[in-house]
Amino acid sequence: MTDTATLAGLDSAALADVLRVAGAPGFDRWQDQIRRTGGCANPIHLTGWTLTKDKTTGETLHHYSTEHEPGGRLRIACGNRRASRCPSCAWTYAGDTYHLIRAGLAGDDRYDIPAAVRERPRVFATFTAPSFGPVHNRPARGCCRCGLRHAEDDPSLGTALDPATYDYVGAVLFNNHAGDLWHRFAKRLRREIAARAGLTQRELADACRVSYGKVAEFQKRGAIHFHAVIRLDGPDGPGDPPPSWATTTLLMDSIRAAAVHRYATVTAPAAGQQPARTFQWGTQLDIRPVKAFGDGSDITEQAVASYVAKYATKAAENTGTLDRPIGNREAPVILGVPDHARRLIEACFDLDPLYPDRRLRAWAHMLGFRGHFSTKSRRYSTTLGTLRQIRADYRAAQERQARGLDDTEPDTVLVLASWQYAGHGHTPGESVLAASIARDLQLNRETARQAMQDQLAQEGVLT
Length: 463
Known about the structure:
This is Replication initiation protein. By secondary structure, the protein is an alpha+beta fold.
């Protein structure tokens, strides 16, 4: 239940709503629904029914209707990946991303990825944006250019030292073209690998495959950059070992060469008063080999997978912008968006008529970035869809067991259903109670995870 300090901080209307919800006849069932969503902050409401019958005999095996649910509704998780919108659903998404990335690093028999991938050349690389002007920062030594030593939580970090000369237009156009830039880099990387192996592109495809999983992250200055796990396999993917010439050193050299090659650039054409601009990766390219657990390395499989999963649930919120589309130009000012983020958003609005195919206005809340936050090559690992299906199958099996249908052959069962959307979200009081449930679930997860890590460390699996 919600703690006393939380209740004391509520206004009278929210407190009254908490008491109303907690005193309602269906409160226990409402809590059960919210726990099943993982404490979702913005659940989807459904009305409807489902009927399970035996095809052979016509016997009704199970019947469910929302008629007797609290408010006549079933609440299901919203599934939003953004931690700023729904921490609980974002936690699930981050967990899926962690398993996806780690399976491609350590292998997982459940997804037909052998443990032999640990022996493959594989690196963790970070590709940054170029400079668009000096910003407030925290250098390892000395002070910021402004003469101050900023605190870690200083809101001025990442903002322009001189807004009048900062290239806001270039920043949002780079974000907007970052996905295209990655694709050109990936193509060039294969050519660099082939050149070092003395092969043609066709011969490389028959000898080696480049696999990757990556995630996008916004720096405080509002520029997008990518973290990527890149691995070399044989031509048939993770189950096929690469040729002997495919080494980690060769992969790292190829990445460095591809990142700075003139082919690995994208151009935003001239439009109106804007000149043509050519973009490439920034000079801060970081490439490190990924090591297996227990070898004393700072960059391990678990560390990489955790790092990637962390940023899979974040968007541009850490820059001060919004986590939802912007309806009109006045919104950034009305909603109190910081000056640096506001200027980037305004640049998107100003440029939208000049580059209609780039949809800059629609993606202004993302400071122009229009790509997926986490992507992977086809053969890197399993898919998020597969992971979601495994979870759905597990829950379906639990439901069949609870209904006494686990011994019934699926082919002999007919399921009829009718569902309608009936809204979403919580009342103010429900939000407080749901947040409390989410905190309890998170505490339980963290306790269980720590217990597992302690056990693995005791067994020598983790060091």
